[in-house]
Amino acid sequence: MTELSRADLHTSVSDPVATSMNFLNEIAGRYPDAISLAAGRPYDGFYSVGDIARYQQSYVDHLRARGLGEDRVRGLLLQYGRTNGQLGELIARMLEVDQDIVVPADSVMVTAGCQEAMVIALRALCAGPDDVVLAAEPCYVGLTGAARILGVEVVPVPEAPGGLDPETVAEVAARVRARGKRPRALYLVPNFSNPSGISLPVAVRSRLLEVAGEQDLLLLEDDPYGLFGLDDEPRPALKSLDTEGRVLYLGSFAKSCFPGARVGFLVADQTVVDEHGGRTLLADEMSAIKSMLTVNTSPISQAVIGGVLVESGCSLRAANRDKLAFYRHNLRTLLAALEEHFPQPDRDDRGVRWNVPGGGFFAVVDVPFAADEKLLELSAEQFGVLWTPMSFFYADGGHHALRLSCSYLEAEQIAEGVRRLSRLVAENA
Hints:
- By secondary structure, the protein is of the alpha/beta class.
- It has two domains: 6-46 and 321-428, Aspartate Aminotransferase, domain 1 (Alpha-Beta Complex), CATH 3.90.1150; 53-316, Aspartate Aminotransferase, domain 2 (3-Layer(aba) Sandwich).
- It has 16 helices and 15 strands.
- It has helices spanning 16-30, 49-65, 70-78, 88-99, 113-125, 141-150, 166-178, 202-214, 238-241, 282-293, 299-311, 316-319, 321-341, 346-350, 373-383, 411-428; strands spanning 35-36, 108-111, 131-137, 153-158, 182-188, 218-222, 247-252, 264-267, 271-273, 279-281, 353-354, 362-366, 385-386, 388-389, 401-405.
- The strands form four sheets. A seven-stranded mixed beta sheet has the order 2-8-7-6-5-3-4, with helices on both faces. A four-stranded antiparallel beta sheet has the order 11-12-15-14, covered by helices on one side.
- Strand 9 and strand 10 (279-281) form a beta hairpin.
- Helix 5 packs across helix 6 and helix 13 runs parallel beside helix 16 (411-428).
- The longest helix is centred in the C-terminal third of the chain and has 21 residues, at 321-341.
- It starts with 15 loop residues before the first helix and ends with a helix.
């Protein structure tokens, strides 16, 4: 049989980011009885197999109500479709209702999950080897992994304890230019970031948009957790504050609907001017990339998500009221369990501390020892609890911290998981 040298394969096959996530899955498989505070997936109890047919039927009814004949409806669901998808009008309406974001429907590209949206945005914006992307660090591994596959350099912008500092963004962009590179965009999750849980204040968001203009940067705003705050305080999307067309908005239905649909979207309403003065939308230009990547997003999956939007009046906030209450309770349970099992003043003496996010699925715990893969395996085997090393989210850092997720479990499991974690810390601090 033919044998291939691993050294002759692209570096992405041995990317530490990808292998670290595979390691997490492998550990979870070997220790199925361990409580996983590592999984950032939504709670299974919200989903039913019957929902699939119901939502598809709601979308079909919507198409018929618009006057489409049966041949047209059949073609929309079962044939190859428009590259940029068929949900643009519904998604644009959702953005206006929920986020006060007003964009044309044609600027919406429906993607095979938000991960594809990241790949398309990176590929379109980074035209040559000198084009780089800045990213708030710690950074979601999906972005860094996508960039690695494409050969796009990612330059980290370290978060301060309170989140991303716009002046630091300007400094990093200037350093990038000083070494002959061109910073094209900044990737960030402004609401309850994965993994840090940090949410940016409104004043910081406004200043960040100013810096983007000063530094000629586009902003890649990823917002999978914005619906899930601990309170009802409005947190305006960067896109809703954007008056200069600096923001590309990346959206996902994985947390707000369900991950199995694998539907996300990208809003790219910027104008592209060609050498003859012709003008098009950036979303239309990007469709050439998508057509060679996935041809089009599954129309059947789009129908499921379309049904969710139709039934909710194009408001994911309305559709997620029960989920919001559940996730709020879980995050409060996680924070209360940390307080219970790491009480003062003992935790200060042991060098343990954590952030208190205002929403989302994650909290970060600093510990006085290396929270690495070796310790994670020990944690699973001897203490029955899983977590995610924060080093997975850094180019080089996060070695003494771990991420805890509270989205996938019942509250009682979260509390027990933190109790088990406290035993691990007690034996290693």
